[in-house]
Design a protein that fits this description.
Length: 158
Amino acid sequence: MITIIFLSYSIFKKIKVIDENKILGERLPDFEFFLMNNQSFMRNNIPKDRYLIFIYFSTDCEYCEHEAEEIGRKINQIKTAHILFVSPDKSSEINSFSSKYKIDNHRSILLLQDKYKIFSKRFGTSVFPSMYIYNDNQKLVKKFLKQVPVDSLFKYLK
């Protein structure tokens, strides 16, 4: 019985590694999200001069709150990336969240609403928080499906 469990786990782990390696290097998908003023924001609106960090979050997610708070405190250390916070919540809730965690007044942070709830279809997940790091060629470098310490992002940002 233990052998069967171990073999099942080993196979699952190998499949997961193969699957993650398959998506690394994929191009940033097409999308349409909305700025807090209800203006459309798409992939072609993103400048290609720096790395991108997409953070998919919910305003009532405790892990998302911790992530946003830490990013708010360490934003000046993240100089090589644009950070796009994307949420399916109402824009009023996103604005309150961003004010509370002090992520609303930084040039490198953009708040976006996933009004049509397409994030999971385009990026492949609906986990809160999830984080996707893309290089300046808009190729996926790293994907996190959980809260991660901000310091652990630095090794993926050049």
